[in-house]
Structure formats: C-alpha cells, structure tokens
Design goal:
- The protein has a single domain, classed as Glutaredoxin, CATH 3.40.30.
- A four-stranded mixed β-sheet has the order 2-1-3-4, with helices on one face.
- It has four helices and four strands.
- The mean pLDDT is 93.
- The two termini are 17 Å apart.
- The protein is globular.
Length: 113
Amino acid sequence: MDVRYFHGTFRCVSCTRIEQYTRDALKERFAAELASGVLRFAEVNLEEKGNEHYVNDYKLYTKSVVLSLVVDGKEVRYLNLDKVWHLLRDKKGFYDYIETETRKFLTEAQGGS
C-alpha cells in the first residue's frame, strides 16, 4: 500500500509540516510495515512533468495525503486523508488520524473487517 503526500513546488510551513508529520507518524506507528514493504511512503510534486494526472485521478484541490492500494499493477482503491489540514496544530491528533485511517485501510485491503 502506498501513502503519498502531494505538494507543489512552493512549500509553505504548513505544507512542510504535513509531510513531516505524515512521515514521522508512519515511522513511529508503522515501522514493521514500512520495513517489510507492506507500506511505502512517497512525496510527489504535482508540478513535475508526468505527475499532473494525480490532480484528476484523486480530485486534488490542495496539498494532500492519499492512501492507495495497487493490485497487479492497477490501483483498486484510494482514500484522500482530507482532515490533515484541520489537525496541523494538534500533532498527536494528526498522528492518531494517520494511524487510524491507515490501519483501517490496510485491514480492509487485506480482506478484514
């Protein structure tokens, strides 16, 4: 499963914080999944050539964190974690949100309930 942070070339303090909080939350709470490759993190500049399609693919209107499940080379599901902006001043809440949504997405992806 992929966790991607989408941003533009210009990076404000909030944009940088979203990436850092996401990266740190994953390292802290999903170390085993990252180490095994079950979970992968990437940051994607939407303004770089070839990345423009993500805006339409995920209906992006601002910097975003998106969970994506790819099976046999084809994306079968995604989730835009749109509450990250509301949690910028609440680091623990941000980490909890990333963890809760990622665990739920992983469980559903693995056929759990």
